[in-house]
Amino acid sequence: MARIAVIGGTGYAGSHIVAEAVSRGHTVVSVARSVPAERVEGATYVEGTLLDVPSLVAELEGVDVVVSTVPARGDMVGQVRSNVAELLAELPAHVRVGVIGGAGGSLIAPGGERLVDQPSFTEEYKPEALEAIGILEDLQRGPASRDWFYVHPAGGFGFWNPGERTGTYRDGGDVLVTDGDGESYISGADLGVAVVDEIEDPRHSRERFTVGY
């Protein structure tokens, strides 16, 4: 079993990853700015933030995998990319890092354009999407000694569309996963399944991948 830390572990993506990892017997540390009233039984909750990397690294001592789920949203706009880079520089070399990005960096077809560059992509979400893509670019340029994975959820992923746990999903590689009607969706719980599957059985060493139904 792995010792997994989830940064942003009380948020939408993070809380589902925490719950899935605990259910499979992993040791899980949820890191967030505050400890929630409702907690996943079996997880450890600590206060920490990407905005204070030295203190955060101290909280993460002894972990095998760190998953960052913090979006560049609200007061974090413009601050996530630089702080993830600082975190990567400070973590021990053996720690595997996972990042939950957005759908915007997914390709719309093999070798095709990115979703964020399509006219239909909501202008309001572009800064968040582009900062998430920047984190991916930093990972790709980083030292080969650091193992990582990066997940693009489906386009319809979010707290406003929670869905249920099915235990199934499709891995689209670089390409946005869509169904027969062109819809792109995955529940919060099944994103958690995909992330913990990757931790338990790594198939994307230093790679990104998309998930959806």
Summarize the topology.
Blueprint: E1 3-7, H1 12-23, E2 27-32, E3 44-47, H2 53-59, E4 65-68, H3 80-90, E5 96-100, H4 126-141, E6 148-152, E7 170-173, H5 188-200, E8 207-212
Parallel strand pairs: 1-2, 1-4, 2-3, 4-5, 5-6, 6-8
Antiparallel strand pairs: 7-8
- What count of domains describes the coordinates? 1
Low-pLDDT regions: none
- The percentage helix is 25-40%
* Cα radius of gyration in angstroms: 16 Å
Strand order of the largest sheet: 3-2-1-4-5-6-8-7
Largest sheet data? 8 strands, mixed
Order of helices and strands: EHEEHEHEHEEHE
- Give me the CATH architecture, please: 3-Layer(aba) Sandwich
Determine the structural class based on helices, strands and strand pairing.
Answer: alpha/beta
Overall pLDDT score: 96
CATH class: Alpha Beta
State the assembly state of the protein chains.
single chain
Record field, number of beta strands: 8
CATH fold category name? Rossmann fold
Q: Provide the β-strand percentage band.
A: 15-25%
What general form does the structure show?
Answer: globular
Fourth-tier CATH superfamily name: NAD(P)-binding Rossmann-like Domain
Number of helices: 5
